[in-house]
Amino acid sequence: MSAHKTTKNHLISQLFWQTEIGADEAISAYPSVQDEMTSLKQYMALLKTPAQPDLSQPKISSEPVSVIQQNTGSGASILEENSGVSDTMKRASLESLTTLNELKIALEKFEGCSLKNTASQLVFGDGNPDAKIMMIGEAPGKDEDRMGIPFVGQAGQLLDKMLKSIGLDRQQIYITNFIPWRPPGNRTPSSEEISQLRPFMLKHIQLKKPDIIVALGGVSAKALLDTDLGILKLRGRFQEKQFGLEQPIRILPTLHPAYLLRAPAQKKLAFQDLVLLKRAITNGMVT
């Protein structure tokens, strides 16, 4: 809808929302001279300003993730002996899984993580399974545990608004969590729990084959990039990581929406990351 057809109160509310998320800087260097006011669609087109994401920074790791290996035809296990997962998991084979639904069933049957015993249900994924943008959060919260869908609580509602600010919605992305069961009291997942579920997440990525992964929050970013750096140091630039696929995948770490609810002043940083994602899309980095 064009701005001149929108009510004054709606325009004011949109300005407040953009200020709240940190969109307080002009994307274009010069004003647009038009006979009529710029529509929302035209405004979103301004994000298409050619700008390649910064891939020149040193990568956290250029080595392939070795927990899941390509099937070489020699019967090699997909799990390393020193991966830190349970004996039960070592006996399981993820190599034969070919669909997300099969992976979901394998997770439902998995008994190697105690979080399953305290959670109401498995929270697997949401959005478009064919989308080339994959968002990976930390773990389900209370609302997600109740509904079985990731990012449906307050943090999820904020994420939906963040996506909308760059012209995206859940039908254009696929979203999941590194940990599929809610930790008691919404506590941070332990390193042991991350290790137990790492093979499933890596298989998840191999099945999805995304062009871009958006790592929502420090837990997800550090687990995916195998680093101890904090999210404030990781965010703001793309990094590449091998996951046993033909091509490395670009990973964009950013702040978790739940953190933004506690620290709203940081929404500006998250918006900068979203603009970087939008530019990557418009520059053809998403097929």
Distance between the termini: 28 Å
CATH superfamily name of the largest domain?
Uracil-DNA glycosylase-like domain
Main-sheet strand order equals: 1-3-2-4-6-5
Structure class: alpha/beta
Order of helices and strands: HHHHHEEHHEHEHHEEHH
For the residues shown, what is the average pLDDT? 81
CATH class of the largest domain: Alpha Beta
CATH structural architecture of the largest domain: 3-Layer(aba) Sandwich
**Low-confidence parts:** 27-38, 51-91
- Indicate the overall shape: globular
Number of strands: 6
Based on CA atoms alone, the radius of gyration comes out at 20 Å
Features:
Uracil-DNA Glycosylase, subunit E, 287 residues, globular, alpha/beta, 37% helix
Please, could you describe this protein's structure?
The chain is an alpha/beta fold. The protein folds into 2 domains: 3-48, no CATH class; 87-282, Uracil-DNA Glycosylase, subunit E, CATH 3.40.470. It contains 12 helices and 6 strands. Strands 1-3-2-4-6-5 form a 6-stranded mixed beta sheet, with helices on both faces. It is globular. 36% of the residues are buried. Residues 27-38 and 51-91 have low confidence and may be disordered.
Please give a quick description of this structure.
With 287 residues, this protein is of the alpha/beta class. The chain has helices at residues 8-20, 40-45, 87-91, 100-109, 115-118, 142-147, 154-164, 191-208, 218-225, 231-234, 257-262, 267-282; strands at residues 125-127, 133-137, 174-177, 212-216, 239-241, 249-254. It folds into two domains: 3-48, no CATH class; 87-282, Uracil-DNA Glycosylase, subunit E.
